[in-house]
């Protein structure tokens, strides 16, 4: 599968997304599906 960013995500990048959702910074977010795929789901 080709990724628009030209590479796969690192474990650090996936962890940062999870930490964001677990932090107070995302306190007002509900029911979100955060796709961390480097743009692959855009269908390019």
UniProtKB/TrEMBL annotation:
Domain of life: Bacteria
InterPro entries reported for this sequence: NAD(P)-bd_dom_sf, SDR_fam
Protein name per UniProt: SDR family oxidoreductase
